[in-house]
Design goal:
Elements lengths: L3 E7 L4 E2 L9 E8 L12 E8 H8 L6 E15 L5 E14 L7
């Protein structure tokens, strides 16, 4: 089974979609993630678009831009496209099954 768990910051306000035929809420949005490189510098941002339904959608609706979130779900096939500058890019997408806000403890 294809499962993925990521954490990152909400890149924009979560958009509320149409409810499913069974009445479950749906939302979609983007999360940005960075890794720290071996030399200590911040690595490139990886953007992941997501769609969430039900309880995960309810959680994500309460979050704001920039908040750290953990998402669990399945990876969707990437869509490759070319930017206006002619650079090839891949759009990474996931369907979210569970979501939670991550609160980091303050340094003492």
């Amino acid at each position: 089974m294809n499962q993925l768990v990521i954490s990152g910051n909400l890149a924009a306000a979560v958009h509320v979609g149409r409810p499913t035929p069974s009445g479950k809420p749906s939302v979609f949005g983007r999360v940005g993630m960075n890794d720290q490189l071996p030399n200590g510098e911040k690595g490139p941002t990886i953007w992941v678009s997501f769609t969430a339904f039900g309880q995960a959608a309810e959680v994500l609706r309460t979050l704001r831009i920039g908040q750290l979130v953990k998402l669990a779900g399945k990876l969707e096939p990437a869509r490759v496209y070319v930017t206006h500058d002619g650079e090839p890019r891949a759009d990474v997408r996931m369907i979210v099954f569970a979501a939670e806000r991550v609160i980091l403890a303050a340094a003492a």
